[in-house]
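Input structure tokens:
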């Protein structure tokens, strides 16, 4: 790899931005495609597919064979609410390779005893969240049912381009939540990004089943094409 490509790649990786090195198999020539440039690239569909999967691989193109070396930041899951659902959700997410952090100022809930092997921050969201580097490769889940905790947390997540934002609660509860957030000046377009009721519609009842539904929805958002995501969102809203 040429030194200039390596330097650019290291810059993108340090900033937690996806990038793909495209290698022409016949000539050995390489170029770097940054996440911000994918939409303008001749191989945009192939590159976008590989970024979503997070996997490198060989592809046939009209110009010949290319090898796509994919560099994608590790995904993280940030949860507000050290609740029963979180106790099931955290280990499932860790099993899938997510870095998991739970934020809850209620020290009776946010304890190492209840969440072994998980990073737990017993602070209010306005203190804890700015330290976590929440970004496009973050899934954010609000589970407390307490507006004093969830509302500022959701506001923070919406401002940072998380690939998934979900909040626990019925449609009625979420309607009241939207009214509160809208009163703070958050646009309808931004609020539409919040998945609520949270999780895939699988008839989940127990905390463990709800955790599976949430992680399934997060996985779909991470791996599926934007068109497929929009289709599913419309189905859920209807």
């Amino acid at each position: 790899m040429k030194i200039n490509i390596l330097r650019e790649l290291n810059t993108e990786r340090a900033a937690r931005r996806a990038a793909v090195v495209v290698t022409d198999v016949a000539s050995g020539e390489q170029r770097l495609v940054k996440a911000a440039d994918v939409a303008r690239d001749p191989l945009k569909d192939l590159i976008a597919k590989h970024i979503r999967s997070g996997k490198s691989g060989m592809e046939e193109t009209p110009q010949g064979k290319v090898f796509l070396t994919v560099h994608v930041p590790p995904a993280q899951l940030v949860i507000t609410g050290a609740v029963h659902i979180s106790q099931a959700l955290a280990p499932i997410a860790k099993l899938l390779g997510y870095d998991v952090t739970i934020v809850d100022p209620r020290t009776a809930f946010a304890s190492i005893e209840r969440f072994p092997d998980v990073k737990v921050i017993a602070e209010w969201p306005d203190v804890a969240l700015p330290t976590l580097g929440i970004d496009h490769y973050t899934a954010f889940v609000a589970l407390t049912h307490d507006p004093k905790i969830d509302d500022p947390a959701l506001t923070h997540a919406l401002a940072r381009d998380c690939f998934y934002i979900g909040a626990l609660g019925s449609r009625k509860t979420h309607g009241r939540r939207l009214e509160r957030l809208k009163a703070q000046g958050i646009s309808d377009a931004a609020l539409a990004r919040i998945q609520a009721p949270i999780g895939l519609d699988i008839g989940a009842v127990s905390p463990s089943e709800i955790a599976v539904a949430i992680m399934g929805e997060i996985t779909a958002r991470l791996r599926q094409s934007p068109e497929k995501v929009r289709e599913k969102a419309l189905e859920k809203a209807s």
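The first strand starts at residue 19 and ends at 24. The chain is about 40% helix and 20% strand.
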